[in-house]
Amino acid sequence: MKKMLTLLMLSLIFCGCRSVEELSEAEKTLIREQQIGESMLEAFRKKDIERYLQYIPAGGRQLYGKKEFDKEQQEVASKLGEIVSYRFLTRLEMEPAHQLVWAVRFKSYSIKGEPVFKEALFAIVVGEVDESKKVFLFGFK
Length: 141
Description:
Layout: H1 2-15, H2 25-45, H3 49-52, H4 58-63, H5 66-79, E1 82-94, E2 97-109, E3 115-129, E4 132-140
Antiparallel strand pairs: 1-2, 2-3, 3-4
């Protein structure tokens, strides 16, 4: 048993080691796109509109501003509660863009004051504009 555990640990150490330089361009792109979505989720959780909209092209910011952000904050809080965690689910190819999807866990309280947990999907559609990643669509489903 001890030998088996040692072999398992060694295989995890040697098989799981890769430097950032060894990542393919597609893997680097996925990591960057995930960081964008998670940055938006954290900004939404902290009610930080500037950070939430930092990846939205200028034209999109004219359509989605503070009024829309505040309304979405209120709707999500009233239906689902406050964000407590999230996990990345998948990336859907929609060349030349990609849709990334997270499961977001919310916490609210029942009438009796007991914690209630709910989940919803958060999705973004990311593409490239002027050699930088931009978010064209985003929201909870």
